[in-house]
Amino acid sequence: MRYRLAGLGLDDVQVAELVGLLREHVPEVSREAVKEIEQQVPEYLRNHDPRYPEVLYRMCEQANFRFLDLLEDPDASLDDMLAFFRSVGEGEAREGRGEGLWQSALRAGTGVTVRRLTEVAESRTEVPGSVIGQITQLVLAYHDQLITAMRQGHATAAARAAGEREERVRKLVDLLVTDDPDPRELAELAREARWELPRTVAAVALKRRDHGHRLPSWALPGLHLAQPCVIVSDPDGPGRRAALESGLTDWIAAIGPTTEPARTSRSLGWARRTLDLVERGLLPGDRPAVALDQVGLLVITRDDDLVGALAARLLEPLGRAREPQRERLAETLLACLECRFNANEVAVRLAVHAQTVRYRLRRLDELFGPAMHDPNRSLDLQLALRHWLAGRG
C-alpha cells in the first residue's frame, strides 16, 4: 500500500505543510479517539487497571503519527508498526478477548481519527476537496492494515494456546488412565489443562463410525490413545447421560462405571470390555452401551469358548427348523426374552406385524417347549442367542 497524496495539485512542500498541520493535532485527536472507545466499547478498557486508558492513548498517538510519516514519505517502512499491532493481537488472545471486541474498539477510534483529521485539513481553504477525500481513504486503508495485523497476531496466539492446552489435556488423560496416579500430579495437570478436577468421572470407550467424529465439548478427549476414549465429569448428574448419548452419535461407545478420578483406568477397562461385546455383536451399537447394565454378560463372556458351548447346547432345537427360518426365529426369541414375550413390543422392535410374531412364537414353542419361558434360563438364552447371531453376521 502506497500512502501518497499525488496528482492532486500539491507539491512536496505543500504536502509537508499539510502533514505538519495535521501532526500538531494528533495528541488531541488521539485523546478524542480514546474517549470514543470508552463510550462505544466500555468493556474493552481494563477497569481493574486505571493506567490502561493512557496506554491506549499512546497506541493511538503512535499509530496516527506513523500514518502522517507515511503521507510525508510513502517509501517509509511500516513493518515495525505492523509487528507491534500483531503483538497487541497476541496479547488480546492471551487475555481471552475475542476479535469482535478489539475490532469494535479500533474502528471506533478510526472513525474519530478520520473525522478530526479531515476537519483540520478542511480548515485550510487552499487544500482541494479531492485531497480531503483521499486523506479519508488513506486513513481507512491504514487502519485496515492495522486491524489485519492484530487479527494475524490474535489468530497465531489463539492457535498456539489451543495447541498448548491440547498437549496438556493429552498429558492429563495419559495420567488419568494409568493405574493409581499420584493425586498431587493429577491435580497439577488438571489445573494446567484448565479442567476442574471433579468428584466423580466415567470413562467412555469409543470406536469411530463411518461418518463424522463429533464429541461433546464438555468431555475430556483421549482420541490420541491407541484405543480412543473420553472422560466425563459427574456422569450421574442431571441430564448428563442423555447429553452423552446425543453427543456420541458419531461413535460406537461404551460407558464405564462411575468412579473417582484416581480410578479412571478401572472404569476405562470395563468400558473397553463392554465395547468389545458391542463389536462382537453381543450388544446393540445404536446407542452407548452401559457397563453396569451388562454385568452378567461381562462376567460370562470372559471365556468365549464357554459361551460357544452354551449356545451349541441351548440352541440345539433351532437345528430342527428349516435353514431360512433359523435366523428369524432366533431374532424373534431374543426380542421376546428382552420384551418379556409382549408380542406388540416385539413387533415394533422387529418391524413386523404382531400376528407374525405370534406365528413365530408358536413355532418356537414347538421347538423349545417350556424351557423357553423359564426365567432362570433367560440370561443364558439371551447370551447364547447373541453369540449365535453374531456368528452369522
Structural summary, described in words:
The chain is mainly alpha-helical. The protein has helices at 12-24, 26-40, 52-72, 79-94, 99-122, 129-176, 183-192, 240-247, 264-279, 295-300, 304-314, 323-338, 343-350, 354-368, 378-392; strands at 201-208, 220-222, 229-233, 251-255, 289-290. Strands 2-3-1-4-5 form a five-stranded mixed β-sheet. The relative contact order is 0.06. InterPro entries: CdaR-like_regulators, PucR-like_N, PucR_C-HTH_dom, PucR_C-HTH_sf. This is Helix-turn-helix domain-containing protein.
Low-confidence spans: none
Span from first to last CA?
A: 67 Å
Strand order of the largest sheet: 2-3-1-4-5
Query: Total domains, how many?
Result: 3
Name the beta content range: 5-15%
What pattern of helices and strands is seen along the backbone? HHHHHHHEEEHEHEHHHHHH
Helix content: 55-70%
Domain PucR-like N-terminal: 16-177
Domain PucR C-terminal helix-turn-helix: 329-386
Protein name: Helix-turn-helix domain-containing protein
Organism: Actinocorallia longicatena
